[in-house]
Structures are given as C-alpha cells and as structure tokens.
Amino acid sequence: MQRLFALFFTILYLCPLSTAQEKGQQRVSVLTCSPGEQVYELFGHTALRVVDERRGVDAVFNYGLFSFDEPNFIWRFVLGETDYLLGATEYRYFIAEYSERGSGVTEQILNLDSVQTSALIRSLTLNAMPQNRKYRYNFLFNNCTTKARDKILEVLGEGARIEYAAASAGDSLSFRDIVHIYTVGCPWYQFGMDILLGAPADELAARSGAQFAPFVLMRELSDATLITGAATRPLVASQRQLIDAQPRTAVRNNFTPFNAALLLLLFTLVVMLCERRSKRSFLLWDVLLMALQGLSGCVLLFMVLFSQHPAVGCNWLLLWLNPAPLILLPILLWRVRKNFSLNFMWIQAAMPALFILAAPFIGQSFPSPLFICAVVIIIRSLFYIYKKNICALD
Hints:
Layout: H1 2-13, H2 19-22, E1 26-33, E2 45-52, E3 57-65, H3 73-79, E4 83-90, H4 91-101, E5 105-110, H5 114-127, E6 134-136, H6 144-154, E7 160-163, H7 175-182, H8 187-196, H9 206-210, H10 214-222, E8 225-228, E9 231-234, E10 236-243, H11 257-278, H12 283-306, H13 324-338, H14 345-358, H15 368-391
Antiparallel strand pairs: 1-2, 1-5, 2-3, 3-4, 4-6, 5-10, 7-8, 8-9
Helix pairs in contact: 1-5, 11-15, 12-13, 14-15
C-alpha cells in the first residue's frame, strides 16, 4: 500500500504545475508525535505533511519505517547497520494510527514561499521512489527527525538560512541527558542504554545534535526565523494540536536496576556469612558472578570494536566489564580444587576498584547500580583471597 501510494504521488509531482498555479495551494508542515509505549516509540516521532488543495492531496512522508522481517534484522541492528525507509501514506491513515495509539500530534505549518514549497514536495517525492527510499539509520544523527529537518534545509535556496533562538537544549545537555529525559519511565531500558553508550554520549549535544529528539526540534522550529536576503519571517506560520495525548497511567515498578543491585549486594553478603558459619565454599555463586561479568564484557567489547551505533566506540566500562573474568574463572576452579593460593584474585578485585577510582576523572557518566555491582565483585574477590584466615576453610 505504501509503495502504491508513493507511485501515485510520484506521477502527480513529476509532472509539476507552474509556480503561479500552485501558489497558495500547497503547504508543508512538520508533524511531531508524542512518545508511545513500545521501546521504539519512547522518543516520539517526526513526519512531514504535504497538502495540495488543487490536486486533492493530503499525504504524510514518514522516515521511520522498518520491518522486522528484513533478512538478519536483529544482527544488523546490533551492528548498527539497520536500514530504514521513507514511506508516503494518506494523512487520514497516519492520524488514525496515532489517535488509536493515544499519542498526541502537533502540526507546525512551514512559512515557505511557493518555490521552496514546490522544491520540498518534489524532493520528498523523488526520495519516496522505491530505488531511493532506503537509508542507513543512525539513532543520534540520521533518524526520522533529522531527515525531516535536513529536507527542509535542503530546499531553502542560495542566500536563505534558518536562524534559531539564542537558547538551545544542546547548549547545556549531553546526548545522554536527552536520552534520560525520554526514558525516565523505563529504568531498565535507560540502564541498558547507559551501559552501551560510551564517553561520546556525554559530550554536549549542541543545537544540531540535540535536534535528533522530535520535541527538541519542535521547540526549535517554533522560535526559528527564516532569513532570505534582507527579508525575515517566522519559519513556522502557525502551530496547532491535531490530537491531544491521552493521559497514561504510570505503572510503578519497584524492581529497578538500583534495587536489583542492592539485592545483589545483600545476597552476596548473606552468602559470605553462610560460608563463614558453615565453613563451606559456595563456589557456584562465584561462577555465576564471574560468568555474568565476563559475558557482559564480551558484549561491550564487541559493540566497541564492531558496532556502527553512535557513541559506543569509546566506553570506559571496559575497565571492569571485560572478558578477563572468563579467563580467570577456570583458574579459580582449578586452584580451589587443588587447595592452592587464590592471590591471583587480586586481578579480579583490581578491575572494579580501578573503575571506581577513575570514574570521576574520565568524562563518562555511569549509572549508580554499576558502582554497587563493582563493590560486590571487590568484596567477593577479597573474601576469596583471605577466606582461609576469615573462615578457616579447607
């Protein structure tokens, strides 16, 4: 259906009317949709609406299409090689979908002249053709919002520019800060992103960077000025709310990453107390901790080395979330079995200790549960080094 509508649109606009005929009859607006409940809906959405009264066209161009049925979709997503599509659909279908979802939709009608409007419609039409509609998605720098913004900038013409208001969200917020704003109600998703996003995510987003978020771009456009030569005019001619967002019932979840980390610490202390009293070693718990630490480190190292996702290429969490525990684990099992010294566990204790000491100085923000998890590894490793003196274990 998307392809048929795009073909219909192409036939209409590759045979353009004269500028005089189209003047005042065409308009393009930016649609900003409020966040939904699915993971891929948390940041909201941006699309471009094209209205042509003379041709009876009311269409929405949407850069946010993807399909889980694409070959190797999950693997390509992990590698940051996900391709998204530009789709064109009738406005009534688009608005009905978001109305049913309960998301709000805000429309900002652009104050472009007839030449700029025609150029933008033609550019979108060409971009929606089957051979042109695919693009390499990038969460921060090339998503549905930045694509819509860039299309507008593309057709302004020589000597025209957009001037934004002095204040900008990117002047004081990092990419991670903006991600936190939109994931505040999803602590585990936020925790996962904090682990994967490295030091580059803590750089100031600046104006163009912050505009990857739909509602940031909407605020920026509402105060922007379009300058053409000596003439100036507001970029947005009018703004209206097409659909009000339905209030969502907040579901309180006490099992947050912070509470889970506290439970991990408490359970580890209980295990150590039981070991001291029973004079037995609960080796299975150490196998689980070290395996979890090492496997997490493998995932993190893979993302740093091979993923094209933005802001994952330099991640200081590798100081202690790395594959080394998977190497130390068989050594631990062998030396415990032979009743040999376990002083090599200083290596296991040193990695999280180095992370805690270095964290304030390396320019990367870390979620607090990770520090609790690091303390768990430290005290467990030190316990193994000194357990003969503490527990008199054989």
